[in-house]
Amino acid sequence: MGAERGALEEKPPGANVDRLEFVTHSPEETVDLGAKLARRLPHPCLLVLQGELGSGKTTLVKGIVSGLGIARQEDVTSPSFTLVHEYGTERKVYHADLYRVEGARDQMTLGLEDLLEQEDTVIVEWGEKLIDQDVDVQVKIQMELLEGEDRRITVEELKK
Asked: Would you say 61 and 38 are in contact if contact means Cβ atoms under 8 Å apart?
């Protein structure tokens, strides 16, 4: 596995890239990377984010949502307590956080199944909790804390 560093749009047209790795050095760089990734997301899309607490998942989502032109990055906040945030009007992004959700029964109360049936983008933080669910994930992003504000961000496009 070769590590790619740089913007996704620098890839040649038609390149079949399944896995990319980036290192960001500040929250601003993480937001910028999210905006660049947004341009390459399939639509509709189920994107899951994995990584420990404080690894920058919501920061990356700020960039993705703003990069899609759905909301300003300052309007994107963590749905840890509300569990799901909805952004946009015509084209929507649903941002869910499963940190406080325990098991499939709790997930059912969120209505994720209904969201996944929409022609919208669904972003799920703590996506590892979806592993036991029968869902079709298109993109998985692993966030890893390094030193200071540095983050390793691994993006996988999951092919059927």
From this structure: no
Q: 108: which residues sit within 8 A by CB, 6+ positions away?
A: none
The tokens describing 26, both together, are 């500040």
Q: Is 149 helix (H, G, I), strand (E, B) or coil?
A: coil
Cα 156 to Cα 22: distance, rounded to the nearest angstrom: 12
Residue 92 and residue 70 in contact, taking contact as beta carbons nearer than 8 Å: yes
Which has the closest alpha carbon to 33: 54, 1, 56?
56
pLDDT in tens, 78-101: 887 678 888 998 889 999 888 877
Q: 30 with 56: CB under 8 angstroms? A: yes
Which domains, and CATH codes, for the chain?
Answer: 21-157 (3.40.50.300)
Give the pair of three-digit tokens for residue 37.
């990734």
DSSP assignment of 6-69: S-GGGSPTT----EEEEEESSHHHHHHHHHHHHTT--SSEEEEEE--TTSSHHHHHHHHHHHTT
Cα(116)–Cα(53) distance, rounded to whole angstroms?
A: 25
The whole model's pTM is what? 0.82
How many helices, marked H, and strands, marked E, lie in the chain?
Answer: 4, 7
